[in-house]
Design goal:
Number of helices: 10
Bound molecules: adenosine-5'-diphosphate, magnesium ion
Structural class: alpha/beta
Order of helices and strands: EEEHEEHEHHHHEHEHEEHHEE
Low-confidence stretches: none
CATH superfamily of the domain at 1-80 and 218-258 and 277-325: P-loop containing nucleotide triphosphate hydrolases
Strand content: 25-35%
CATH class of the domain at 1-80 and 218-258 and 277-325: Alpha Beta
Length: 325
């Protein structure tokens, strides 16, 4: 497999009055062609900032201060705004939690989709419309030839997200960055959309980064997971292996707080305490103050421990297989 996206030593900081928020502070990962990576962590861990950094969408007071972002070997950090605009929506598409980040309320779906196609390709309006209808059908919108004439507000939240997904798929991107695309939807619709997306990316060979705060969601869609805490990836590896036997106590904590994975009637084990402010991180392991296994050694910066085939954890005391709550 060849690397589609390589992120090396990425640091994105926000220079605020309260201090420097190190939202992303040394993130490394490689995504291969056609691979789906789940990027997981509690709210505020730096998942969105990581995705936005890749697309060059960080606005002041934020800035990518260090690192490399290589898309098919091309450095995006230093790419011109024109080049980034050409890549965005065509080779790299983004799906947001709120579909109205993609959709314009005052335009018919048809207009928006046709314009998106024409912005990147020289095809006739008729051909563009036909493709838009085809893609709407593929994301589960029935009677797309009629409904393409509707405005976004005539659709439910789930349907609007399907339209946003259809727009992301219009140019058969090599990479989709999906930032909590189903978080705002009810569980049934969420499940439908996840399985449809899984099928679509598998069919088209599209690589995807699926951002979620919910490991259970990621388990169904991702080949690999990267777990983020306080601006860093603290555990990475094959999805099944990591979720089956986490190496990092934080990953274990996230798993123990998922309702469907806990014995009915048993109390949920929420991770105690709160995610730290990335303006003033503790020395050593950032998770230590909340970690049930923390020891003296955790006061020092945690090493990268190889914990199995293709997996590692940033932890001085990684859990071994069979160690559970
Ligand atoms: P999430 O993992 O929930 O997607 P984000 O990537 O959105 O988290 O944010 C990570 C952290 O980055 C936040 O907790 C905050 O400290 C900081 N941050 C993000 N956006 C801004 C901003 N516009 N100004 C200041 N700090 C920000
Ligand atoms: Mg986010």
């Amino acid at each position: 497999m060849t690397a589609l996206l390589e992120v090396k030593g990425l640091k994105t900081h926000f220079f605020t009055r309260a201090g420097v928020a190190k939202a992303v502070d040394g993130v490394d990962f490689t995504l291969n062609e056609g691979e789906v990576m789940g990027l997981v962590g509690e709210s505020g861990s730096g998942k969105s900032v990581t995705s936005f950094s890749i697309l060059g969408l960080i606005d002041p007071p934020g800035r990518v201060v260090e690192g490399e972002i290589l898309f098919r070997g091309e450095e995006l950090r230093t790419a011109s705004e024109a080049r980034l605009r050409a890549l965005r929506g065509k080779d790299i598409a983004m799906i947001f939690q709120d579909p109205m980040m993609t959709l314009t309320p005052v335009l018919r779906i048809e207009t928006q989709m046709v314009e998106t196609i024409l912005a990147h390709e020289k095809v006739s309006k008729k051909a563009a419309r036909a493709r838009a209808i085809d893609v709407l059908g593929r994301v589960g919108i029935s009677a797309p030839e009629t409904r393409i004439g509707a405005y976004p507000h005539q659709f439910s939240g789930g349907m609007r997200q399907r339209v946003a997904i259809a727009i992301a798929l219009l140019h058969q991107p090599a990479l989709i960055l999906a930032d909590e695309p189903t978080t705002a939807l009810d569980v049934t619709i969420q499940g439908q959309i996840i399985s449809e997306m899984q099928k679509l990316v598998a069919e088209t060979g599209t690589a995807m980064i699926w951002v979620s705060h919910d490991l259970a969601v990621v388990e169904t869609i991702a080949d690999r997971v990267a777990v983020m805490y306080a601006g860093r990836i603290v555990e990475s590896g094959p999805a099944g292996a990591v979720i089956g036997a986490p190496s990092h106590p934080y990953t274990e904590g996230l798993l123990n707080s998922i309702p469907s994975r806990t014995t009915p009637g048993r109390k949920l084990n929420q991770i105690p305490g709160m995610a730290p402010s990335v303006v003033s991180l503790p020395e050593g392991c950032a998770f230590a103050p909340r970690c049930r296994y923390a020891a003296e050694i955790c006061r020092a910066a945690p090493p990268l421990a190889a914990t199995g085939p293709g997996r590692w954890a940033r932890c001085a005391l990684p859990l071994r297989e069979g160690v559970t709550a």
